[in-house]
UniProtKB/TrEMBL annotation:
Residues 1-23 form the signal peptide. Keywords: Amino-acid transport, Signal, Transport. One of its GO terms (biological process) is amino acid transport. InterPro entries: Leu-bd (IPR028081), Leu_Ile_Val-bd (IPR000709), Peripla_BP_I (IPR028082). Belongs to the leucine-binding protein family. It holds the Pfam family Peripla_BP_6. This is Branched-chain amino acid ABC transporter substrate-binding protein. Residues 27-369 form the Leucine-binding protein domain. PANTHER family: AMINO ACID BINDING PROTEIN, LEU/ILE/VAL-BINDING ABC TRANSPORTER SUBUNIT.
Length: 380
């Protein structure tokens, strides 16, 4: 063989080897949230939390199994729609991602979890609170927030014991999240000795609530609980004011955003709205959360909505398991991820139980004053 031909072959072999080595050094992590539609502001908040984690990890120069790796974020939009959620889950599985952080909604996270389970890809949701999410027996499914049993239950007890609710109305948007948290709220109200005076339903795309609020008004409620997201809660609060319903308005983490006062268009009285976020930090841990929020604002020039810190922690917990396992291969790091104990995140300490739920998950109760979200207390 001619020397030049041998040289060309050597170059080709080296190039092929180089590309293979490079491919091994790139670790793809998927993120899914609704970055279009009514709650796009929450989906974008989540995605920015993921980008922040990925950028910081790449800046640090993480080594897995003796090799320096570069993380790549594959971000997808599920528009909060279950069908789109499973479609993008399959797209990420086909792209051979090593893990997925998402989805935001329970309604998309639950059907997508089967796709990830079938593909053997670990999935950590930063915000899906419906209990069913971790009850399907999938070894790949995790979450870093407390579930609706804890969330709805705490709010239900608070409505009866602290707010002294005598006439309580419950409305939900019929999604997996909204219905789930409303049902747990209702159970807790009854267990605490309270009663539900009115039960109504809407959808996650509704804008006119005149009919259901008129029915609610007839029961003279002192507390109205809404199971759903802030995009519907805001206009609902506005229309409650127009109809002269002066009740306390309660909801789960889906309404507990910094955007809610804008969506309510100035209709929120100080202390009228009480909501709970599925997470919470106390004491010294507040320093880490405050720093995260300041860094986030500096990087993206927007405030944290709700879940960005949980996404950030979910990405870091996943990568910590890869580092400890010495491999980014799902089959190798998944058992290590499942045994995560006392990982110190900005949202608090993370330990997973046998179902993939966070152990001893905290909740934070908030209200709004002067259109600013204000923490009331952390509950466990």
């Amino acid at each position: 063989m001619h020397f030049a031909q041998r040289s060309l072959m050597s170059v080709a072999v080296l190039a092929a080897l180089g590309s293979t080595a490079f491919a091994q050094e790139v670790v793809k992590i998927g993120h899914v949230g609704p970055t279009s539609g009514g709650i796009a502001h929450l989906g974008k908040d989540n995605e920015m939390g993921a980008r922040m984690a990925i950028d910081e990890l790449n800046a640090k120069g993480v080594t897995i199994g003796g090799k320096k790796v570069k993380f790549e974020l594959l971000a997808e939009d599920d528009a909060g729609d279950p069908k789109q959620g499973t479609a993008v889950a399959q797209k990420l599985a086909d792209a051979k991602v090593m893990g997925v952080v998402g989805h935001l909604n329970s309604g998309t996270s639950i059907p997508a979890s089967k796709v990830y389970s079938d593909a053997g890809i670990p999935q950590i949701s930063p915000s899906a609170t419906n209990p069913k999410f971790t009850r399907n027996g999938y070894k790949t499914t995790f979450r870093v927030v407390a579930d609706d049993v804890h969330l709805g239950g705490t709010l239900g007890r608070y409505a009866v014991n602290e707010l002294k609710g005598k006439s309580i109305a419950v409305i939900d948007d019929r999604t997996a999240y909204g219905q789930g948290v409303a049902e747990e709220f209702e159970k807790a109200v009854k267990a605490a000795g309270g009663s539900i005076a009115e039960r109504q339903f809407t959808t996650d795309k509704a804008t006119d609530f005149t009919a259901i609020l008129t029915a609610v008004k007839s029961k003279k409620p002192d507390v109205v609980f809404y199971g759903g997201m802030d995009a519907v809660a805001g206009p609902m609060i506005r229309q409650m004011k127009q109809l002269g319903i002066n009740a306390k308005f309660m909801g789960g983490d889906g309404i507990c955003s910094s955007e809610l006062p804008k969506l309510a268009a100035g209709s929120m009285a100080d202390g009228q709205v009480i909501c709970a976020e599925a997470g919470g930090v106390e004491g010294k841990q507040k320093v880490g959360m405050d720093k995260f929020k300041a860094d986030f604002k500096k990087k993206f020039n927007v405030d944290v909505q709700i879940y960005a810190p949980y996404v950030y922690d979910a990405v870091n917990v996943m990568v910590a398991a890869m580092v400890k396992a010495g491999s980014a291969e799902p089959a190798k790091y998944l058992p290590v991820l499942a045994k995560t104990t006392n990982y110190h995140g900005v949202t608090g300490d993370i330990t997973f139980d046998e179902k993939g739920d966070i152990k001893n998950g905290a909740l934070t109760l908030f209200t709004y004053k002067g259109e600013k979200r204000e923490e009331m207390k952390v509950v466990r």
